[in-house]
């Protein structure tokens, strides 16, 4: 079956097609134009084994706006709590014949593994430190709407890169679209081997932000720092937190992004996050619904074709 497991598997044309379609959905969402026929008759199951506000809510809304029957698995009240494995849970749900399975899981690679066991389309809603493809797509759409293009831009991704699936998916997408990507992080939060991705690496915010078009901040992911070095929040904000003074080193029209959830006063100054002249954080959330509509629309079309051709059981 067709899946959306990572940006890794997408080419430039597929990324552009998804963003173009999402842009049209974004405009229709603003105008209140409904598209309830697109996923009519299809069943979407959302399985979130890790907390989420934005991704889960927007996948649910996206499915509803396209007319799917949407079911949210309540993991906390499910048999997962009795020790049922991911694969057994997936096979159980697969037997209920869903068409779209949206999965978030704390383990890198868990969603890929699950996709091999089911015969419906699987969308990765974030797996461990690996990928968060719809986040990168919604970030790309937000950037393109603000900057009118999605190539030859200078984009800084700042903060806890080592633990970030958002950074990983964005580095791949922005690189594939021929942008200049800079990573800014303390050495302890910079993954090794990033230079292989064709990015520039900095540990000083002011240096790294010089003349960039886009500043993408990341959350300090303490829950993934299992026993390792956790910086003090005050010290971290002083050196790596984005505020108006550090932002002044970027281009005067540089936009500020954050995937959320954000820690105000840790990686970003709260007043700057709310400054609608610089921050596109709320637009990112809005684009999240449109991108998920586009992704499910495309996968559903591919799924119908695969079923018609007999490649996937109907
Ligand atoms: N950006 C993002 O994935 O947010 P949630 O964890 O709230 O879904």
TrEMBL record:
<dbReference type="InterPro" id="IPR006130">
    <property type="entry name" value="Asp/Orn_carbamoylTrfase"/>
</dbReference>
<keyword id="KW-0808">Transferase</keyword>
<feature type="binding site">
    <location>
        <position position="219"/>
    </location>
    <ligand>
        <name>L-aspartate</name>
    </ligand>
</feature>
<dbReference type="GO" id="GO:0004070">
    <property type="term" value="F:aspartate carbamoyltransferase activity"/>
</dbReference>
<dbReference type="GO" id="GO:0006520">
    <property type="term" value="P:amino acid metabolic process"/>
</dbReference>
<feature type="binding site">
    <location>
        <position position="82"/>
    </location>
    <ligand>
        <name>L-aspartate</name>
    </ligand>
</feature>
<dbReference type="Pfam" id="PF02729">
    <property type="entry name" value="OTCace_N"/>
</dbReference>
<feature type="binding site">
    <location>
        <position position="104"/>
    </location>
    <ligand>
        <name>carbamoyl phosphate</name>
    </ligand>
</feature>
<feature type="binding site">
    <location>
        <position position="260"/>
    </location>
    <ligand>
        <name>carbamoyl phosphate</name>
    </ligand>
</feature>
<keyword id="KW-0665">Pyrimidine biosynthesis</keyword>
<dbReference type="GO" id="GO:0005829">
    <property type="term" value="C:cytosol"/>
</dbReference>
<comment type="subunit">
    <text>Heterododecamer (2C3:3R2) of six catalytic PyrB chains organized as two trimers (C3), and six regulatory PyrI chains organized as three dimers (R2).</text>
</comment>
<feature type="domain" description="Aspartate/ornithine carbamoyltransferase Asp/Orn-binding">
    <location>
        <begin position="153"/>
        <end position="298"/>
    </location>
</feature>
<dbReference type="InterPro" id="IPR006132">
    <property type="entry name" value="Asp/Orn_carbamoyltranf_P-bd"/>
</dbReference>
<dbReference type="Pfam" id="PF00185">
    <property type="entry name" value="OTCace"/>
</dbReference>
<dbReference type="InterPro" id="IPR006131">
    <property type="entry name" value="Asp_carbamoyltransf_Asp/Orn-bd"/>
</dbReference>
<dbReference type="GO" id="GO:0016597">
    <property type="term" value="F:amino acid binding"/>
</dbReference>
<comment type="similarity">
    <text>Belongs to the aspartate/ornithine carbamoyltransferase superfamily. ATCase family.</text>
</comment>
<dbReference type="InterPro" id="IPR036901">
    <property type="entry name" value="Asp/Orn_carbamoylTrfase_sf"/>
</dbReference>
<comment type="function">
    <text>Catalyzes the condensation of carbamoyl phosphate and aspartate to form carbamoyl aspartate and inorganic phosphate, the committed step in the de novo pyrimidine nucleotide biosynthesis pathway.</text>
</comment>
<feature type="binding site">
    <location>
        <position position="165"/>
    </location>
    <ligand>
        <name>L-aspartate</name>
    </ligand>
</feature>
<feature type="binding site">
    <location>
        <position position="54"/>
    </location>
    <ligand>
        <name>carbamoyl phosphate</name>
    </ligand>
</feature>
<comment type="function">
    <text>Reversibly catalyzes the transfer of the carbamoyl group from carbamoyl phosphate (CP) to the N(epsilon) atom of ornithine (ORN) to produce L-citrulline.</text>
</comment>
<feature type="domain" description="Aspartate/ornithine carbamoyltransferase carbamoyl-P binding">
    <location>
        <begin position="3"/>
        <end position="144"/>
    </location>
</feature>
<protein>
    <recommendedName>
        <fullName>Aspartate carbamoyltransferase</fullName>
        <ecNumber>2.1.3.2</ecNumber>
    </recommendedName>
</protein>
<feature type="binding site">
    <location>
        <position position="132"/>
    </location>
    <ligand>
        <name>carbamoyl phosphate</name>
    </ligand>
</feature>
<dbReference type="GO" id="GO:0044205">
    <property type="term" value="P:'de novo' UMP biosynthetic process"/>
</dbReference>
<comment type="pathway">
    <text>Pyrimidine metabolism; UMP biosynthesis via de novo pathway; (S)-dihydroorotate from bicarbonate: step 2/3.</text>
</comment>
<feature type="binding site">
    <location>
        <position position="55"/>
    </location>
    <ligand>
        <name>carbamoyl phosphate</name>
    </ligand>
</feature>
<feature type="binding site">
    <location>
        <position position="261"/>
    </location>
    <ligand>
        <name>carbamoyl phosphate</name>
    </ligand>
</feature>
<dbReference type="InterPro" id="IPR002082">
    <property type="entry name" value="Asp_carbamoyltransf"/>
</dbReference>
<feature type="binding site">
    <location>
        <position position="135"/>
    </location>
    <ligand>
        <name>carbamoyl phosphate</name>
    </ligand>
</feature>
<dbReference type="GO" id="GO:0006207">
    <property type="term" value="P:'de novo' pyrimidine nucleobase biosynthetic process"/>
</dbReference>
């Amino acid at each position: 079956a067709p899946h959306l497991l990572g940006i890794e598997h997408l080419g430039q044309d597929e990324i552009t097609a998804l963003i173009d379609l999402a842009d049209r959905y974004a405009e229709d969402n603003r105008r209140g134009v409904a598209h309830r026929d697109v996923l009519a008759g299809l069943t979407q199951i959302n399985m979130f084994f890790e907390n989420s506000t934005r991704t889960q809510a927007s996948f649910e809304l996206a499915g509803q706006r396209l007319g799917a029957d949407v079911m949210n698995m309540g993991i906390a009240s499910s048999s997962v709590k009795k020790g049922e494995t991911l694969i057994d849970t997936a096979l159980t749900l697969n037997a209920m014949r869903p068409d779209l399975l949206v999965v978030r899981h704390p383990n890198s690679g868990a969603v890929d593994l699950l996709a091999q066991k089911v015969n419906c389309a699987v969308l990765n809603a974030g797996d461990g430190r690996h990928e968060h493809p719809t986040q990168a797509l919604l970030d790309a759409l937000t950037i393109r709407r603000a900057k009118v293009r999605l190539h030859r831009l200078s984009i800084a991704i700042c903060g806890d890169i080592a633990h970030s699936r958002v950074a990983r998916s964005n580095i791949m997408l922005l690189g594939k679209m021929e942008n200049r990507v800079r990573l800014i992080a303390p050495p302890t939060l910079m993954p090794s081997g990033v230079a292989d991705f064709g990015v520039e690496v900095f540990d000083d915010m002011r240096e790294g932000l010089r003349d960039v078009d886009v500043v993408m901040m990341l959350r300090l992911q303490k829950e993934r720092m299992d026993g390792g070095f956790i910086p003090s929040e005050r010290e971290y904000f002083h050196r790596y937190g984005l505020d108006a003074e550090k932002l002044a080193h970027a281009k005067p029209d540089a936009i500020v992004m954050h995937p959320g959830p954000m820690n105000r006063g840790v990686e970003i100054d709260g007043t700057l996050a709310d400054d609608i002249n610089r921050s596109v954080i709320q637009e990112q959330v809005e684009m999240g619904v449109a991108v998920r509509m586009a992704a499910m629309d495309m996968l559903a079309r591919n799924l119908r074709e695969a079923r018609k051709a007999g490649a996937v059981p109907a």
